[in-house]
Amino acid sequence: MGSGSWHMEKRHSFKNEPVKDVEHVLENGSLSIVVLGASGDLAKKKTFPALFNLFQQGFLQPNEVHIFGYARTKISDDELRNRIRGYLVRDKGASPKDLEDVTKFLQLIKYVSGSYDTEEGFRLLDKEISETEVLRNGVDGLSRRLFYLALPPSVYPSVCRMIRHCCMNKTDLGGWTRIVVEKPFGKDLESAEQLSTQIGELFEESQIYRIDHYLGKELVQNLIVFREDFGTEGRGGYFDEYGIIRDIIQNHLLQVLCLVAMEKPISLKPEHIRDEKVKVLQSVLPIEDDEVVLGQYDGYRDDPTVPDHSNTPTFSTVVLRIHNERWEGVPFILKAGKALNSRKAEIRVQFKDVPGDIFKCKKQGRNEFVIRLQPSEAMYMKLTVKQPGLEMSTVQSELDLSYGQRYQGVTIPEAYERLILDTIRGDQQHFVRRDELKAAWEIFTPLLHRIDNGDLKPLPYKPGSRGPAEADALLEKAGYVQTHGYIWIPPTL
Ligand SMILES: NC(=O)C1=CN([C@@H]2O[C@H](COP(=O)(O)OP(=O)(O)OC[C@H]3O[C@@H](n4cnc5c(N)ncnc54)[C@H](OP(=O)(O)O)[C@@H]3O)[C@@H](O)[C@H]2O)C=CC1
Ligand SMILES: O=C1O[C@H](COP(=O)(O)O)[C@@H](O)[C@H](O)[C@H]1O
């Protein structure tokens, strides 16, 4: 950086670049990526598009990679390809080059049909993988096998057993077998521990990648507001069994909180970072009922897959207290909801008022540091400054780092893209370790059981609102001061 000016270097390529302090071994040889549950929603909307983006950027080399879809539905290779084709190219619209890449990518995909609890299908899958390995490797390549479980957790144990018995990498070729498991990892502490034990008997912790896609987002830290402008349309059956705390707060928001509140790790090594996150989780005090507001939007129960008397919260605000030297007395407010007034995810750090304010409370609001995760990724500092002019009056303004403006032409990778690449590279930094998962469930299980037993009831709120008014009252009680009349507008180009 020169004096008086600055410049930005664009990273033209970071393919195979080792990340500092993380031991990556450059590997060559056959890489088989198996998407189990390939017929499903997540596979078509997230997993295959992420693989396509990695392929387009050269991280998945056609001479090394083969992709397998596996599920019970009886379809051909081409039928699977046709199901996912329309999801591969991002919103921007497809260029002729994109379409050419889509065709090349789809040619790498094969489909195998089979059940999740019998050996027949998995033996067939192993045969298909082994044949491509022989074809790709010649004599000295590696056998790398990545199994992505885009499946309901109820089948994880049997699927893991089948992989272990039928589909492990060929050790005579070297390489590895890794499995990626989706949330929800259980429904409470006991069921999560049971699942962890079942999978842990089959695979080493270093082979298990518990994915939380919030950890793959570009801007991830403490999160005080999380709002969505859509309800549970089409997912009511799943959602009603889990509710907003299990769906978003216990995992995504808590992970983000850990990254904000943790102390500096000894190094960037995944285990050092995860050690610090566990310390934060273990320092969280039991949740008090009067620091929780639950809501359910009007109309939620109209979904035919939702029971008429459902007590499931679609909204929650929860105050967490971290009992350690740094954070004693600071409320961490986690808020998430369906069918709210806007769809956004952000971390908002509000600064206390300065004691002995010489402006005699004429300031418009408190200073805040905001990290906007989505949409319009940005970091901005909301500040009270002097209104330019002869008068000594104040106004709110911001120092704004908006990514769209600052990093023009740079495509921000999708969370799943980054995380799948991490799995291939063997980097577990952004995945949830077993003890982290346990500590996270320890925090929320007592509250969840009280909700499940009907001891706490959700309050109604209107779709398109901020949630129940009681939630704003809780924020205020916790010490958060809402700013009125100031709105940050993401800059347009
Ligand atoms: N969809 C999303 O946006 C997100 C999903 N997830 C998680 O990812 C995983 C997959 O989600 P999603 O794709 O939405 O799920 P789906 O309900 O679409 O299920 C995926 C596939 O699993 C098979 N399947 C469904 N139900 C059962 C069952 N009861 N027993 C055995 N097999 C079944 C079906 O394939 P077939 O019948 O062909 O075998 C289905 O195509 C889940 O754990 C979910 O919580 C996480 C974040 C977001
Ligand atoms: O895991 C889930 O996350 C999505 C929100 O993810 P985002 O990347 O779109 O912010 C949420 O809508 C869904 O209910 C939940 O299962």
UniProtKB/TrEMBL annotation:
This is glucose-6-phosphate dehydrogenase (NADP(+)). Its EC number is 1.1.1.49. It is an enzyme of class 1 (oxidoreductase). It catalyses: D-glucose 6-phosphate + NADP(+) = 6-phospho-D-glucono-1,5-lactone + NADPH + H(+). Pathway: Carbohydrate degradation; pentose phosphate pathway; D-ribulose 5-phosphate from D-glucose 6-phosphate (oxidative stage): step 1/3. Keywords: Carbohydrate metabolism, Glucose metabolism, NADP, Oxidoreductase. Gene3D superfamilies: Dihydrodipicolinate Reductase, domain 2 (3.30.360.10), NAD(P)-binding Rossmann-like Domain (3.40.50.720). Residues 224-480 form the Glucose-6-phosphate dehydrogenase C-terminal domain. It comes from the Eukaryota. GO terms for cellular component: cytosol. Transmembrane segments: none annotated. The keyword Protein transport does not apply. Residues 34-222 form the Glucose-6-phosphate dehydrogenase NAD-binding domain. The keyword Ion transport does not apply. GO terms for biological process: glucose metabolic process; pentose-phosphate shunt, oxidative branch. Pfam families: G6PD_C, G6PD_N. Belongs to the glucose-6-phosphate dehydrogenase family. GO terms for molecular function: glucose-6-phosphate dehydrogenase activity; NADP binding. It comes from Prunus yedoensis var. nudiflora.
